[in-house]
Design brief:
Order of helices and strands of chain A: HHHHEEHHHHEEHHHHEEHHH
Strand order of the largest sheet of chain B: 1-2
Number of strands of chain B: 4
CATH superfamily of chain B: Formate dehydrogenase/DMSO reductase domain
Structural class of chain A: mainly alpha
CATH topology of chain B: Formate dehydrogenase/DMSO reductase fold
Largest sheet of chain A: 2 strands, antiparallel
Distance between the termini of chain A: 67 Å
Strand content of chain B: under 5%
Shape of chain A: globular
Number of helices of chain B: 12
CATH architecture of chain B: Up-down Bundle
Number of domains of chain A: 1
Oligomer: heterodimer
Radius of gyration of chain A: 24 Å
Structural class of chain B: mainly alpha
Chain lengths: 466, 330
């Protein structure tokens, strides 16, 4: 069998980057959540907040650890699999990632140690400052990496000259047309992810009748955050859709599942399609009549543009882009439903009693992660066949590394990342099963957070708080 | 202003910090093999737990400076050392998650510690392999790598790899003498005595062997005979001083001498390689990105690096003194 290095290099990058993004999504969301919890604890001295902080800090630490080591791989992978891309794009996006390392990675690393192990070495205020700085670091990191990725989606501020990009305006390069929408979209996604994690774990305890003060507070906070965030996400997502329609029409054509230059009128909204890229048609399509016209053209009989508007050699693969979009969008609709239901139940005073709602929350625990991954599939597969949209094709960017070497390292990545995932899930489920009161106990210490963090003190505070 | 030269200095500084800082972390990792008692291993790992992440970040910094300022060199080095780099990254990954996962469960801790040790050893070996591979020479055609990804698995790179493992062990042992309790200090002193002798011998052998097989190294010797001879003498002296200082009461001395070995070693390497970035093949200026990119990078580096160094130092200061018996949370 003849292996194509371009395909294997792409599978390897897709696998490692998909695996990686799960963990920053969790840690960006949890870092800000932890900062809010510690801040609330400092302000109210209500022990439940501290219990929530302590519980999620463990999971945050593991997610952060896996995120760091899988991110380390990515900073070299630009060159490992795609050395032509590195040589051409290095002058343009290299500095953005250098700024990410300087302003974010060091900040996170410097204060993470204090956040995780410094309870006893620094005062509560300084500890809170460390938590806030780590959270700031995660947001800065997202800003820079989204600037780099958005530049690959909608390049501006640089021209191709003598075999590499020459930057003409750093402002236009960083504040490229899609960054201002994609950055809040991603941060919001990370916050939604954390909100559903927190609400889901709380709901699980409520259903089991365990750790009730912790569980009620988690559900109350998680659903409140999620409701506000999903409303914002729908709004930002709509703006981003309009922007991408303008800059990358092929992506949005593929995302809606129509082939013909103009769809039938009225256009349906497809939920399931079986696309046949070779013959440029759908073998099967199932959707809701009229809904496509209404949603996409805001009229009852509007026509939607199909993928045939783009020449076949410049088309993305419709199936991947379409389902990336549908999974993300479908989950957003369900999240919106959860948000509305939580408002209704809160108003009725039944937020902690309604079992169907709590069960839904448990099912929705990982929904943010799945939606974020699906969104990235839409973004990245929809950009193909370009790696830098309109400037460099992915097939022209790869390294002179033989397919065999690429394949063997892909297998190595798969095996070792499987260990990471298995260990992360195992330890996370164990922490959830043990619950917030079973955390490792600490010896006596005075004049620091230390004492307040002892489980007995927390339990008393938790009981007293309710 | 010679921007590529400044960028190269920034890259060299980042690499030096990485080698010295993560060097002792990896050394402590390798020394775990020789420590059978669980409590002792806990204590050894505790001594590096709060600061390892920042130390490792200097490696990312080095890679990204190369990507930004010398994309041509980055695009050659990554495919040329494809296998050792990926093996190194996976090893560093396994080591990194071991920090988080080993504390989660007592039953599996021994297994995670084994992973920690093996991963540290392989990461160190691969780093030496890359340096040795660069000295051995990379096959180029214009600005593209045309050799084979297995070129690096030859005697000189392997020799430098083993030398680096010994060097990191000296650093790691020095760190433990400085940071740990009396029991571990005994163990660390014994380790340092053994590894420093090995390091000096391997270092001498590596210098001689690289001059034999690589005409570029011989040319550097002809051009810079005095500085290179001085550096070799001082590295040997620093190695002997590290060895002798294990009998001293001042527990920080062996670590300081260990760091000086690395500073001198990197200085020597720079003398041999300069003004090239791919040794004996491609100069800094031929591999450099346009000045707009260099300027933007250097502005950030000048403004932010002092702040980074300040709060990194603060993090070390928070965790100053000897490692507590039951970890930092005590």
């Amino acid at each position: 069998m003849k292996l194509d290095p371009a395909i294997i290099a792409r599978i390897q990058f897709a696998f490692t980057v998909s695996f990686h993004i799960i963990f920053p999504t969790i840690s960006i969301g949890l870092a800000s959540f932890l900062a809010i919890m510690e801040g609330l604890w400092l302000k109210t001295r209500d022990g439940v907040y501290l219990q929530i902080y302590r519980f999620w800090l463990n999971i945050f630490a593991m997610a952060f650890g896996v995120g760091v080591v899988t991110g380390l791989v990515l900073s070299f992978e630009f060159g490992l699999g795609f050395s032509r891309f590195a040589q051409i794009a290095g002058p343009a996006i290299g500095p953005l990632i250098a700024y990410e390392v300087l302003t974010s990675f060091f900040l996170e690393a410097g204060f993470l140690g204090i956040m995780l192990f410094g309870f006893n070495r620094v005062g509560p205020r300084l500890h809170f400052a460390a938590t806030c700085l780590v959270a700031t670091g995660t947001l800065l990191s997202a800003s820079w990496i989204l600037a780099a990725n958005s530049w690959m989606q909608t390049p501006s501020g640089a021209v191709y000259q003598d075999g590499h990009m020459v930057v003409t305006s750093w402002l236009h390069l960083i504040v490229n047309p899609s960054w201002l929408y994609r950055l809040p979209h991603m941060i919001n996604a990370a916050y939604l992810t954390a909100s559903f994690l927190v609400a889901g774990v709380g709901a699980r305890y409520l259903l089991q009748g365990k750790h009730l003060p912790f569980a009620r507070r988690s559900v109350a906070l998680g659903t409140a955050f999620a409701t506000v965030l999903i409303a914002g996400q729908v709004f930002i997502g709509d703006l981003l859709y309009g922007t991408m329609l303008k800059h990358q029409p092929a992506k949005m054509q593929a995302a809606e599942g129509f082939w013909e230059k103009e769809s039938a009128s009225p256009a349906p909204y497809y939920w399931i399609i079986v696309p046949d890229q070779k013959h440029q048609r759908n073998r099967f399509a199932w959707g809701t009549p009229y809904l496509g016209s209404i949603w996409l053209t805001h009229s009852l009989h509007g026509r939607v543009e199909g993928l045939k508007n783009t020449p076949p050699d410049l088309q993305p693969i419709m199936g991947m882009t379409f389902y990336g979009f549908r999974i993300m969008y479908g989950l957003a609709i369900v999240m919106f439903g959860v948000g509305v239901s939580s408002l209704w139940l809160r108003w009725k005073g039944r937020l902690f009693e309604s079992r169907w709602f709590l069960r839904t929350l448990v099912v929705m625990t990982p929904s943010g992660i799945v939606a974020t991954l699906a969104g990235w599939y839409l973004a990245e597969t929809g950009r193909q066949p370009w790696v830098i949209y309109g400037i460099l094709k992915t097939v022209d960017a790869i390294s002179p590394v033989p397919a065999r070497a690429l394949l063997s390292t892909l297998i190595a990545f798969a095996c070792i990342y499987a260990v990471f995932m298995a260990a992360f899930l195992f330890f996370t489920f164990r922490l959830i099963r043990r619950g917030p009161t079973q955390l490792t106990s600490h010896a006596e210490a005075s004049g620091s957070l230390k004492n307040a963090l002892r489980p007995q003190v927390l339990d008393q505070a938790a009981v007293g708080g309710r | 202003m010679d921007l590529p030269l400044f960028s190269a200095c920034f890259a060299a500084a980042a690499l030096t910090l990485y080698v010295m800082l993560d060097g002792f972390d990896l050394g402590v990792g390798v020394l775990l093999f020789f420590q059978k008692r669980d409590a002792a291993r806990n204590h050894m790992i505790d001594s590096i737990t709060p600061t390892w992440d920042g130390n490792e970040t200097w490696l990312v910094m080095t890679g990204i400076i190369l990507f930004t300022a010398f994309p041509i060199a980055y695009g050659i080095i990554m495919p040329a050392f494809y296998l050792p780099i990926i093996i190194m990254l996976l090893s560093l990954g396994l080591r990194g998650v071991s920090f988080e996962f080993r504390v989660q469960m007592k039953a599996l801790r021994r297994q995670w510690d084994t992973v920690f040790g093996i991963a540290s050893l392989i990461a160190a070996l691969m780093q030496g392999l890359i340096v040795g591979g660069l000295l051995q020479g990379v096959e180029l055609e214009g600005k593209r790598f045309t050799g084979s990804v297995t070129d690096v698995f030859r005697p000189l790179p392997l020799l430098i790899g083993v030398t680096l493992v010994f060097g990191y062990c000296v650093l790691g042992a020095g760190w433990l003498i400085y940071k740990s309790n009396a029991v571990i200090r005994q163990f660390a002193r014994a380790s340092l005595r053994a590894t420093s002798v090995g390091l000096i011998l391997l270092f001498g052998y590596g210098c001689a062997y690289s001059a034999i097989i690589q005409s570029g190294v011989r040319l550097a010797w002809a051009l810079h005979t005095v500085p290179l001879s001085a550096i070799i003498i001082f590295v040997t002296l620093a190695g002997v001083a590290a060895l002798v200082s294990t009998w001293s009461k001042i527990t920080v001395l062996p670590f300081v001498f260990g760091l000086s070995i690395f500073l001198l070693g990197i200085a020597g390497l720079s003398v041999v390689v300069f003004p090239n970035i791919i040794p004996f093949r491609l100069s800094l200026w031929d591999a450099a990105s346009p000045s707009a990119s260099q300027e933007f990078l250097l502005v950030g580096a000048t403004l932010v690096t002092p702040v980074v160094l300040a709060y990194s130092a603060f993090a070390y200061w928070v965790f100053r003194g000897r490692t507590p018996e039951k970890g930092w949370e005590q």
